[in-house]
KCNKH protein
Amino acid sequence: DFTRQHWKCQLHELAIRGFVGSHIIVSLQGIIQAYKSGITLQGNSTSLGRWDFSGSFFFSISAITTIGYGNLSPSTAAGRIFCILFALFGIPLNLVLLNEIGQLMLLGVQHCAHRLEEVFHWQKKASLLIKTCALVTGLLLFLLLPPLLFFDKEGWSYEEGFYYSFITLSTIGFGDYVIGMNPDRTYPGWYKNVISLWILFGMAWLALIIKFCINFLE
């Protein structure tokens, strides 16, 4: 009788564990689905702020620039179809925009070089000086200073911020670091919009640098 009662207790305990385990699995699946739908947990409450205007704008930029962090994606059939059409038209238009921005940057550098040549009667020195200044300015604006902003808003180290900056502007986009994803932090409304513009201009600048490197290697 004691052995029979012992086994009954064991079976009852296993049944309870299986029941609880199945509910835990269902709960985890619900949490994963909610995360994919754009819900983030903040203590005992939820926030749908990831699909607000700034979050949607940032998602649009990450899509047409082909960065594709993977932290946010459409969860409905209509959303996926729209995303495909949006990318088909958005990616070529974005390439045109980046090319125009890059050409404007290049024209600005050349204009400054010509002005120096006229004022100081320099030739090769003016071009070299302006290109060096443009390179240093670009490094500061797009790679060296942004990590300080990420340190303040995200709590990342400088190395992590620099890593995120390069991975983003080079469109590698691993997704291991993404801005605005920490539920314990409050982000200002302008934050993602400014970062989106930084991505556009930063990609144009980095494309020019890569182009110069290719010409040098060739």
Remarks:
- Confidence is low (pLDDT under 50) at residues 42-49.
- DSSP finds seven helices and two strands in the chain.
- Residues 77-120 form the longest helix (44 residues).
- Residues 1-37 form one domain.
